[in-house]
Amino acid sequence: MSFFRGLSTLSKLRSRAGQQSCLSGSVRWIQMQSSSNLDLRSELQELIPEQQERLKKIKKEYGKVQLGNITVDMVLGGMRGMTGLLWETSLLDPDEGIRFRGLSIPECQKVLPAAIPGGEPLPEGLLWLLLTGKVPSKEQVDALSAELRQRASIPEHVYKTIDALPVTAHPMTQFCTGVMALQVQSEFQKAYEKGIHKSKYWEATYEDCLSLIAQVPVVAAYVYRGLMFKNGQIIPLDDSLDYGGNFAQMLGFDSPEMLELMRLYVTIHTDHEGGNVSAHTGHLVGSALSDPYLSFAAALNGLAGPLHGLANQEVLLWIKSVVDECGENISTEQLKDYVWKTLNSGKVVPGFGHGVLRKTDPRYSCQREFALKHLPNDPLFQMVSKLYEVVPPILTELGKVKNPWPNVDAHSGVLLNYYGLTEARFYTVLFGVSRSLGICSQLIWDRALGLPLERPKSVTMEWLEKFCKKGA
User: What pTM was estimated for this model as a whole?
Assistant: First the structure.
């Protein structure tokens, strides 16, 4: 239940706050028998033993199978292309794009429960899918929504910790600080200090992860509605709304279309396999048995970098710079000139290219479909459409870019801006809220499968030179 309390320093108000199954790694669905558990934890309790046995079998039968050769380019190029991490919740194909437990984004939009008929998928449904590999029923999703609302209460000290920062602190700094302040309630840390058996690690991790997922929208909304943007006018959590809808309304938006956009946004940003900076960082820190709060806070610090999650902020700012200099009715030739001007100044065109994908990001495509349906005449959306035509050929002409196509960041800011969320500096926080679902889902499975401390081997340039000369 939500309730309010006054905060004297800022005079703020705040809140306390037929089924189908998908085979993991496959796009085949099978009809589930009768009704299953409405409780997500019970579902996991049944699934984990069989997945533990599956991992043991893979180790025993295939442990010595080579997955490829490591080259010097890979070592020097940020480990790109190395296969060296188990990540169960999603898989990124260079040509097909992301699949969540085997399902593409269009497939998720088709089969996951929605808040309204024909609407966008509910993030809680994707959370269920990420954790279990099964498409949940609407009843299961509703039960999970209710549980997340019950877990969304924020301790007083969290707000005070955020308030102690300068008002000029970047929203991601405030958000990450809030997550770190939540850490004192970690059930995993308490259980570990009491000597919990390692076979039970996943249970305490589950408790932390579900609470963390529930709490981060409230913390994010507090950051947004604070003095930086909204003068401390805090909006309470609504016990009748779902996860994405509640997040939108706590930010201050009650348009049905904005609620739908937030459901879509959170869903498509949840996970992007394990190699990206935020996901890998969460896994790496978690492998040391750091609790989910510490692990996710570390992931947020990676997400805040301009080569990762901060890019969605940079895209909108860059598009607005085009409009400021050239106007909304810029011609194709003028836009080409501006793109070349950006590139020739040593900068990149934000929102284009991807470390793995070699096609247009499916997350971009579903946002484009949303825009075509709801805001086809918006000038900034039309600018995005022109960029889709102009930028890839220019990047291809440069000959230095393996993927000239737009990624997820090329579109999200324009949609948010249209519905009134115009503060680009806050966009990465939205990304962070979404990413909590994917990172926390994998953290639970990391502990359930007993995955070890991550410790890759590093070498020096001298070692590389000697090794390569020896092999020449």
Answer: 0.89
